[in-house]
Specification:
Oligomer: single chain
Helix content: 25-40%
Largest sheet: 4 strands, antiparallel
Strand content: 25-35%
Length: 116
């Protein structure tokens, strides 16, 4: 139901310069891209929507368990990395989506990566 991409975290430069607004960090990420058309019969046994819902639920439960103490500056990569290590479940940093003009849904699950 999709693809797995690898990448690096981008960090905004403060203040931005004319030449650069973002810099590439050394922190790895994994991006799972799920592509859904409007035909549920093509989904097979796995249900990507339920997978995303389960990941969001687990992340919320883990945040509640930790009392979600936010320290400034807040680092979603570090938080997801720590929750993944403590729970042995890949926790998402972000879950984003995009719908194309043809009605195809793309879901992007961004998770801490490992050394590639």
């Amino acid at each position: 139901h999709g693809y797995l991409h690898q990448g690096r975290v981008l960090q905004r430069v403060a203040p931005p310069t004319r030449e650069c607004e973002w810099v590439v960090t050394q922190r790895n990420i994994a991006v799972k891209e799920i592509i859904l058309d409007n035909q549920p019969q093509n989904r097979g046994i796995e249900d990507p929507i339920k997978e995303v819902a389960a990941m969001q639920y687990l992340k919320q439960r883990e945040q509640q368990r930790r009392n979600h103490v936010v320290e400034a500056p807040y680092d979603i990569h570090l938080e997801a990395e720590q929750m993944t290590i403590e729970s042995n479940v890949m926790m998402p940093m972000e879950i984003l989506h995009q719908v194309t003009g043809e009605g195809v849904l793309h879901i992007y699950i961004i998770m801490p990566g490992t050394t590639w």
